[in-house]
Design a protein that fits this description.
The complex is a heterodimer.
Chain A: H1 7-23, H2 27-34, H3 43-51, H4 70-82, H5 89-106, H6 109-123, E1 129-132, E2 148-151, E3 157-167, E4 174-180, E5 186-192, E6 198-204, E7 210-221, E8 226-227, H7 233-269, E9 271-272, E10 275-276, H8 281-310, H9 316-344, H10 355-366, H11 372-382
Parallel strand pairs in A: 1-4
Antiparallel strand pairs in A: 2-3, 3-7, 4-5, 5-8, 6-7, 9-10
Helix pairs in contact in A: 1-4, 4-7, 4-8, 5-6, 5-7, 7-8, 7-9, 7-10, 8-9, 9-10, 9-11
Chain B: H1 8-22, H2 49-60, H3 79-91, H4 101-113, H5 116-127, E1 133-136, E2 152-156, E3 159-167, E4 177-183, E5 194-200, E6 206-210, E7 221-231, E8 235-236, H6 242-262, H7 272-279, H8 291-319, H9 331-350, H10 364-376, H11 386-397
Parallel strand pairs in B: 1-4
Antiparallel strand pairs in B: 2-3, 3-7, 4-5, 5-8, 6-7
Classes of the chains: A alpha+beta, B alpha+beta.
């Protein structure tokens, strides 16, 4: 495993950087927010990303993808993270899509058929699948779930409960919902948008990432709605979230670099006391610390993405590297954006300046999928102490 | 001198066989401790005859300096071959035949800046372990502001007359030669009046006194020059051009320090958790009960892992033929500070057992831990302080204004 980029990977990163610079400037996030856009992202731009092959880059060719890996997908997420691009790669490609893809690898005939129908649509940017696992009381624990399912005569499933902050969950084509039976077995269920007995309500988060509340009031699903084999839903969700967390980390890596870039430009141009403030050693040393944190985060993200491509899902080394990446990115992004606002001074507090958008995203990303303390605890557990 | 295949993989088989045949079996140990280190030089006392034999055989084959040209006593190996050699030595648990400033600092500098006569005079002696070198950079009045150094060399016929003092000259009392920065033009701006001078430690007027540190005795010395006569031909590079040579050598030094401390040089390779289990209450599954300590250990281990991955990323990029990235500028500062945190955490874990200085009631491991902690405080000072390193990052990498 090499942590250096290959020529092909460098090309992918450059292409993504050019595309993001031209088509997805940060101003777009502000416009979508201020216009109260119903969707919160652009279907047309999402389609263009699909045409570049991004959405299926880590999906096998047989299922409509490019058959590359997470090392490549992470590079794209990193570039998108630089301008906080709101398109639903995290929710749909890395969460919903990966749930379908992983279920197809080890599940039933129905899983395979579902993947064959929906993954090509996901890769083509024609379908949005949202994963609903977050609840009011489970915080970062994937094996805790209050939403319930029971089996009716005839094998139908009945789901009841409430999910919150379902990413891009206000207008998807289908949901994948986690629920537990009375024996405490967790499963994931395929729930198309035309199922009855549920409601969604859009949520507005501090970081402008689209999310929704999903209430399930006796949703009735057919016998083949369960993803994967019975009783293995917890493991499936765990594997999906390793991928999603790595994708989020890559996005955070891009965001912290951009926040730092803006800050450095400010330090090189703002004058006070008759000199450029970047000449002050008190600021230089803090800038050097941010630089170091970003380089460490980059190594951790790259290692986690490579591990997804090379290690088996059960290998504790994989989970450790993902936790390492999330802990590092959580702290690195917060440092870069907190320090950014401070170094910008008063204007850093204004909505007009961009640094505040990074501060908001850094905090939202930190508190998604486990903060640094959560992942340190996980690291310790996986290491046996 | 054996001829090896230039293809790295064919070389692997050949070198493995050569190593197995030539390294005396008693030297094979899982970990290299101080006792196994061969520094070389006229005053060095071998701990056993095997060390001496291994040095002689390795030097004869050019393997003490694998990548140096053969004409100067090196092995003439390619980068790829040298990498295979170090991998195979690690696999076979073979200790390096020789280490020291000659191989890691002055040798590479002479190869870059020395003239033919200087290379022929000094490099073979380094490769054979006959000459040990020390470094004369810092002065009592010139630490971080190294360029303000005052040790002066004045022309007298074909010689210089050197007067002044150097401090932190590690192992000067064991060394045969010193490479020193001296002021040859007191009128010039401070960086421009410095020359890089090689001095035989046996020359009359050179005296050495050891320095005792907060951690106890140390290899550091203060070296005094009183009317020391040195041939003018001992200047490396241009007269008054020593600052360029000095900076090139500092790069070798910093990468060496980062390598050593980043991976926890000097401490047992046991995991921090295993160390903690000896001192802290654990449940029957070996889980440490104190959640705060658990968090601290995880924090440290994760920082160390991220640092290790960054070193790896840098090496992978170099191997792929890419230019060194900006990440390399952080290795010294982060590696040394990580090493300090490692020691501090171990002290906290050991609790009152970490308070020993000498005598009864403390294990030898505990006593050395305490001293290693004290010594580690110097890591962020020596070889360029963390503050200077951060200045360098801010200027060179982040392009912040002066």
């Amino acid at each position: 495993m090499s942590l250096a980029l290959t020529e092909e990977q460098e090309f992918i990163a450059r292409t993504a950087a050019d595309f993001v610079a031209q088509k997805s400037p940060l101003s777009r996030v502000r416009e979508l927010r201020d216009s109260g856009d119903e969707l919160g992202w652009s279907r047309a731009l999402y389609k263009e990303m699909a045409e570049l092959g991004w959405l299926g880059i880590a999906t096998p060719e047989a299922l409509g993808g490019a058959g590359m890996g997470f090392a490549e997908l992470a590079l794209i997420m990193e570039e998108l993270g630089r301008t906080l691009a709101p398109e639903p790669l995290l929710s749909c490609v890395l969460m919903g899509g990966q749930a379908l893809q992983l279920a197809a690898q080890s599940g039933t005939e129905a899983d395979l058929q579902r993947a064959e129908v929906w993954l090509p649509k996901i890769c083509a940017g024609e379908a949005v699948i949202a994963l609903a696992h977050q609840e009011e009381s489970n915080r970062y624990e994937l094996d805790e779930c209050d939403t319930s399912f029971r089996v009716e005569s005839g094998g139908h499933f009945i789901l009841d409960g409430k999910k919150i902050q379902v990413l891009d969950g206000h207008k998807p084509d289908a949901f994948i919902v986690s629920a537990e039976n009375e024996d405490g077995e967790l499963s994931l269920f395929w729930m198309p948008a035309d199922s009855g007995n549920f409601s969604t309500q859009r949520q507005f988060r501090v970081d402008c990432r689209s999310a929704a509340i999903l209430e399930l009031n006796g949703v009735r699903l057919p016998p083949d709605a369960m993803l994967g084999k019975p009783g293995l839903g917890g493991e499936l969700l765990e594997q999906v979230m390793l991928r999603a967390t790595t994708g989020l980390c890559a996005e955070m890596l891009g965001g912290m670099q951009q926040a730092f870039h803006l800050t450095l430009e400010h330090l090189r141009s703002r004058e006070q006391f008759g000199v450029l403030i970047g000449s002050f050693q008190a600021l230089k040393h803090r800038a050097a610390n941010i630089f170091i944190e970003i380089e460490l985060a980059r190594s951790a993200v790259r290692a986690a993405a490579h591990a997804l491509d090379t290690l088996s899902g059960e290998d504790p080394e994989l989970a450790k590297l993902v936790s390492l990446a999330k802990a590092r990115c959580s702290e690195g992004y917060l440092l870069a954006s907190n320090e950014g606002v401070q170094m910008f001074g008063g204007v850093g507090m204004t909505d007009e300046y961009d640094i505040g958008l990074y501060l908001k995203r850094a905090r939202a990303a930190e508190l998604s999928f486990g903060d640094a303390a959560h992942h340190r605890e996980r690291w310790a557990e996986l290491s046996g102490y | 001198m054996p001829q090896f295949n230039s293809d790295p993989e064919a070389f692997r088989g050949e070198i493995r066989e050569w190593l197995q045949q030539n390294c005396p079996a008693p030297l094979l140990v899982p970990r290299i401790g101080d006792l196994q280190i061969v520094w070389g030089g006229a005053k060095f006392v071998f701990k056993n005859p095997h060390q001496k034999e291994w040095l002689a055989r390795a030097a004869e084959a050019g393997l003490t300096a694998p990548e140096w040209p053969r004409e100067f006593g090196g092995g003439g190996l390619s980068r790829a071959q040298a990498k295979v050699l170090s991998q195979e030595m690690r696999n076979l648990k073979i200790p390096p035949p020789l280490i020291g400033f000659g191989l890691t600092m002055i040798g590479p500098t002479l190869l870059q800046y020395g003239n033919e006569a200087q290379k022929l005079q000094h490099l073979p002696g380094i490769c054979q372990g006959q000459v040990r070198w020390c470094q004369g950079y810092s002065e009592p009045g010139a630490g971080s502001d190294l360029a303000s150094l005052q040790c002066r060399a004045e022309v007298s016929g074909n010689d210089y007359i050197v007067n002044g003092a150097k401090i932190w000259t590690s192992n000067a009392d064991e060394a045969d030669w010193i490479f020193a920065l001296v002021r040859t033009d007191p009128q010039a701006k401070k960086q421009e009046g410095i020359s890089f001078l090689l001095v035989d430690m046996e020359t009359p007027g050179v005296s050495v006194s050891p320095i005792k540190l907060i951690s106890g005795s140390s290899p550091f010395c203060e070296t005094h020059f009183e009317n020391v006569r040195v041939p003018r031909s001992n200047v490396v590079g241009k007269v008054n051009g020593g600052w360029t040579v000095a900076k090139a050598l500092l790069n070798h030094e910093r990468s060496m320090i980062a390598d050593t401390f980043g991976v926890g040089g000097g401490l047992p390779r046991r995991s921090m958790a295993d160390f903690a289990r000896e001192y802290l209450p654990c449940d029957e599954d070996g889980m440490i009960e104190d959640p705060v300590m658990c968090d601290r250990i995880a924090q440290f281990e994760m920082d160390a892992r991220a640092f290790g991955l960054t070193l790896q990323r840098s090496r992978d990029a170099a191997r792929a033929g890419q230019q060194p990235g900006p990440e390399s500028s952080m290795f010294k500062v982060y590696g040394t500070e990580l090493n300090q945190r490692r020691h501090e955490l171990m002290l906290r874990i050991a609790g009152p057992q970490a308070l020993g200085w000498q005598g009864p009631g403390f294990s030898s491991e505990e006593l050395s831990l305490t001293r290693a902690w004290l010594r580690s405080r110097g890591n962020s000072i020596e070889g360029g302080t963390s503050e200077v390193q951060r200045n360098v990052i801010a200027k060179r990498v982040l392009a912040l204004p002066d």
